[in-house]
Amino acid sequence: MKARTFIGNIAIAFLSALLAVIVYSNYFNDQIKTDEGLEKQQTLSLLEDSNQVNYSQNPQIQNSQNLDFTFAAEKSINTVVHVTSTYNLQNNDNYSSPLYEWLFGEAQKQPSVSFGSGVIISEDGYIVTNFHVIEKSSEIQVVLNDKRTFKAELVGKDPGTDLAVLKVESSGLPFITFGNSDILKVGEWVLAIGNPFNLTSTVTAGIVSAKARNINILRGQSQYPIESFIQTDAAVNRGNSGGALVNLNGDLVGINSAIISPSGSYSGYSFAIPINIVKKVVADVIKYGEVQRAVLGVQIINLDNEKADELNLDKIEGVLVQQITENGAAEEVGLKVDDVILDINNTKVNSAAELTEQIGKYRPGETISLTIKRNNKKKQFEVLLRNMHGNTKILKTEEYLSILGASFKQLNDSEKRTFDVKNGVKIAELKDGALKQAGLKEGHVITRIENEKIFQIDDIKKILSEKGKGAVVEFEAMYSGNRYIYVYKYKVKIE
Question: Which long-range contacts (CB under 8 A, 24 or more apart) does 41-50 make?
Answer without folding.
Answer: none
